[in-house]
Fold each of these.
Amino acid sequence: MRPDPATISDSELLARIAGGDEQAIAALYDRHAGMLLALALRIVRDRSDAEDVVHDAFVTVGDRAELYVNDRGTAVAWLVTLVRNLSIDRNRRRARRGAIEREVLVHEPSESGRASSDSPELQVLGAMEAARVREALASLPPAQRTTLELTFFSGLSYPEIAKRENLPLGTIKSRAARAILALRAALVGEPRS
């Protein structure tokens, strides 16, 4: 008898996804889709686009799960990076389409009035996960927190942050690396090194 996918780790789920286990991808989606949707929405600022980003991310997970290396970071960090990159790509494509797309969108119905399709339970879980992330971010030193916020929520690259903050690129990269380690430790409950 196979263990329930809801009781195994994210990295084990990724290993099962790499082996073609569809229940594993559903379990990983159920665990993290709410948090990933909130991240995508913060970057792309459109619910429909954010939903598309999360969908694309899980299609990519299905195709590339075998590329995940547990020693390089948590599965959640891998998913967050994937959604962040897809969100930034979507924003860049949208910017390139420019005036033509804006003209077409004028005639499209608004998505803002649509109610969330998530169940109340999923909304509560997503809110709880978001609160954990906010609390972990708040525990970081201000410089590290700012670097992560500019990277993940504003979609700026490290060179863009270095230019904006008037700091060397190496400083921004090391600040981001320390912040990610501290954030991971705070979310997992590990002591900081």
Amino acid sequence: MKLTKYVHSCVLVEDNQHTTLFDPGQFSWESGLFDVNKLEKLDFVIITHEHFDHFYEPFVQALAQKFPDIQFLSTPEVVQKLKGLGITNVSADSNDFVKLSPLNHDSMEPLSPGPMCQNVAVNYKDKISHPGDSHHLAESKEILFLPAAGPWGSTIEAVRMAVRLKPKMIVPIHDWMWNDAWRSTMYDRMEVFFTEQSARFIKTVDGETFEL
């Protein structure tokens, strides 16, 4: 399995059977690192929720135009937005490879009072777990996509969740708000810490592919 992170929470996952893109958001699109024209295959696009850093309409439209047969999987809210863009191969239901489970988006009160948007946790091929914007995932598969920071959650809460879930490998996501120096510092610290926890922490580099 090969993974390529394209800034923040956008991750391309490739194996011998499928190519799947997680959370095509605005930060990732505007980085210029993701070139739709260079991608030869795309089977699934998984969007954990409707926030712009995970679901950006120009990004989604470019994907749908290049790959008209791809299937989009997301929350009912996002499904309706996709249909409004003229995209019809969409679903809020699980399939043989992607399991979606409702999981509350962590609160942003008091900065953003009231209920948050719908959010889903993802089990991809019984290998990858992705909580969306939450630090309250109940269980993890071998590989955990770990939201490292955000206005709704702290890095320490992310680390505590990973300790509780005990994945074998950790891929950090949701870290656009860190500058490069701080990202490097935190990656180094988490690599040391999780090695002591018998887990492999992947120090991703945006746009570079690594194998698991």
Amino acid sequence: MRSFVLSFLLLSTAMPVHADDIMQAQALFQRYRQLADAFDPAFADLYCDAARISNTRRFPDGTERTLELSAAQYKDLVRAAMPVARQRGDRSTFSSMAFTREGDAVRISASRYSLLKDYTSPITLKVAACNGNAWGILEEVSESRP
């Protein structure tokens, strides 16, 4: 009985940490969507300084090109692109979100639909504490089309 109680106490104290990480990831993803929908350049600040960004561009002829960017490059690109995206109405919606714990991080997987270009593609974000312990994006892996 004593070992059962100890096991229960250990599990019950461990579970909120896991749930808290998922809640942190969900809150970050909600902020991600809000800033993107508002075309707010502060969107770039969601990325950790050491983030890894990878986008595979898939062309109609079947070829593809993968672009890897540093966080600094991506942040500059995002800040410059926000006014153009707003002007074009370049918005995305997300579906099939899944939040999976990976060590001290959470992997967010989703399907992203481009309203402007009318296609759906996968996106994953790895999020965790960074940049002074605030939660941010450590990695983004996405696909796009011209």
